[in-house]
Amino acid sequence: MFAGGFGLEAARAVTPGGAATRDDVVHALGRLVDRSLVVAEERDGEARYRLLETIRQYAADRLVEAGEATAARERHLAWFLGFVEALEPELRQDLDAWRTQLEREHDNLRAALDWGLAAPDPEHGRRLAAGLPWLWHLHRHGREGLEYLRRAIDRAPEDRSTLQARLLTGIALVADTANPLGLEFDAAQRVLAIATERGEERLRALCLTLSAVGRFYTDFGAAWALTVDAVGAAEAAGDAFVADAARALQGIILHLRDRHREAEPLLASAVEGLLHRHPGIAATTLAFQAGGALSTGRADLARRLAERAVGVAEPLGDYLRVGSTRSTLAIVHGLTGDVDGGLRLLRPVVRLVEDAGTGVFVPGMARAMGLLHLWGDDPEAAASWFGREARSTDRGAETWLVAQSLPGLGAALIALGRLDQARDVLDRVVAVARRLDMPGVLADALEQQGHLAAAAGDADRAVDLHHQALAVRVEHGLRTFSADSLEALAALAARTDPTPEAVRLLAAGDRARASMAYPRDPARRRAHEATVAGLRAALGDRPFGQAWADGARLTLDEAVAYVRRSRGARRRPAAGWASLTPTELDVVRLVVDGLTNPEIGGRLFMSRGTVKTHLSHVYAKLGVANRTELATLATPRLAIADDSRDGGRSRQ
């Protein structure tokens, strides 16, 4: 009867009438082992037995001839149904221990299901299927689980019992890790109606959470509303696991909307609750935490969180958790300069997924591979990988996986010189990012559109697009990628009018990258070196060196504030009164008014160091040595400027 191995109690359970004692079974198995008809093994301190397949098939044929196969199969099914249902309390207390015990019996459970679901009365088969969704949710056999659950539901398609609700919930649970798009939401909604009718509040809370997961790939707002209901239902039912899972999803939604300050406490709280109740969701949550840290300039924290996520996921052995957490850690490696290390991390996952064939769901893996190849100077391979996830849809709508992949695809196409294709891709991602409200993705797209505009010779549009990208990044605390915007604007300024300001911005970018462990990839490094060489040649070694030293004293925040305040100054002359930026003019006015540096900083919302930097720029541009000379030179000019600005009203 047994497919795979079996234990003593299971062997005793399939004997006719249950008349055999434990000693009888031990004695019989011992004789069979002595004759090499049964193989004895020990696993985790438990004796396990198995038959060689040829012997098993011979014995099965004899059982059929004796007319005892049906009864034996019924006893086999009854034993494993009882085994699974007796373990159900452990499912809520120790998910790993529960999973380990059931995985050991995977072949037997499959055989019992095949028999039970084909029987004239499928009740036992349906009950067994209803007890296994969490196993398929956690295991690599999700597709198989979906098939068994569909068979169980189809044996009583009009049923609206609690059992039918559990089977439908199983579809949503298994779909969550096997194939959520287009399946999870619909199944969860069908259960929700039954659970509400029958007053099953715990089941209702779980299905609200699964419905939220089903919606969140294409509609963050709808998903958020469902999580709010799920938390309320879970708390009313006393289900801490579902409450934590719903809060984790809320944190993930906030993360994807780049509201990282709000997301972090939710994610951290959910992780602590989920580590013991559901390590898989905990691992996913940790990976999103790592992504938030990486975007906000905290690469060391991102690495620690991503490594912890992988450590939690690896023992689970499923495609989704291991693949998605390794993808996050690989991105951390690649972004901090270790592209080869990132590729090594993902190589076994890619091999597993490719060996498994189509339909394996590992969100983020294709994007991670695309980024690593892009940073590794292989845009052709990058475009191929990005393209895989760029086709992701749910019920006809593009998912957030598409939004995250398209900016990279656009960058790869630009690098390949396929500019028309890149333009179409970037227009598409801007629309998806605005629909889903994903500011970081929008900024990435705007940045790439800026590079496209520059390649087309439209410098004004390029500057505008890079400023838009920078504004989004500043607003949402995306410090890591603010450095990219800063350098793009400096490069554009250097191309049209080589000035010390461009040098200062590049130096500030160098300092920011060093502090955030964010080195340039090869393509950015080549562009940066060319820009630096051009500026040095245009300005001369000494002025270039002085400007670089000035810029190297600027923090990222100071440099970003400076470039945003001086927007539109690209065509100003390098020296003289007309070269001063609006912010520098404000500083000069306050110097003339007699304010000290701290007072000027308080008035203009900048640090004392930034005021000093602005003054050094002003001194250099105007050829003055100190505040006294500046005030003497500036007073009559400011009076004329103010008088002309108010149309002479000050004389009346």
Distance between the termini: 108 Å
* Helicity, as a percent range: over 70%
Total number of beta strands: 4
The spatial strand order of the largest sheet comes to: 1-2
Main beta-sheet strand count, sense and barrel state: 2 strands, antiparallel
- List low-pLDDT spans: 643-652
Radius of gyration: 33 Å
The helix tally amounts to 35
Look at the structure and give the mean pLDDT. 89
Question: What structural class do helix, strand and pairing data support?
Answer: mainly alpha
* Share of residues in strands: under 5%
Shape descriptor: elongated
Task: Give a description of the structure.
With 652 residues, this protein is mostly helical. Helices cover 75% and strands 2% of the residues. Among the domains are: 478-571, no CATH class; 576-652, Winged helix-like DNA-binding domain superfamily/Winged helix DNA-binding domain (Arc Repressor Mutant, subunit A). It contains 35 helices and 4 strands. A hairpin with a 2-residue loop joins strand 3 (393-394) and strand 4. The termini are far apart.
